[in-house]
Amino acid sequence: MASRRADWVPWAKVLVWAAALVPLAVLLWDATHGGLDAEPVKDIQHRTGKTALVLLLITLANTPMRRATGQGTLVRFRRLTGLFAFFYACLHFGSYLLFDLQFAFGDLAEDVLKRPWITIGFTVFLILLTLAVTSPKVMVRRLGGRRWHALHRLIYVAGIGTVLHFYLSVKKDVTVPLQFAALLAVVLVARMAVAAHDRRKRALRPSRDVT
Amino acid sequence: MQALFSQALPAQIMLIRRPPDIKTSDITNEHLYWSRREWLAGVGFGVAGAALGPELATATGTARQDDDKLTPYEHVTGYNNFYEFGTDKGDPKANAHTLKPRPWSLQVEGDVKRPATYDLDDLFRGMGVQERVYRLRCVEAWSMVIPWSGYPLADVIRKLEPGTKAKYVAFTTLLDPKQMPGQRSRVLDWPYIEGLRMDEAMHPLTLLVTGVYGKPLPNQNGAPVRLVVPWKYGFKGIKSIVKLAFVEKQPETSWNISAPNEYGFYANVNPTVDHPRWSQQSERRIGELFRRKTMPFNGYGDQVAGLYTGMDLRKYY
Question: Which residue of A17, A143, B199, B262 is 20 to 30 Å from B255, comparing CA positions?
Answer without folding.
Answer: B199
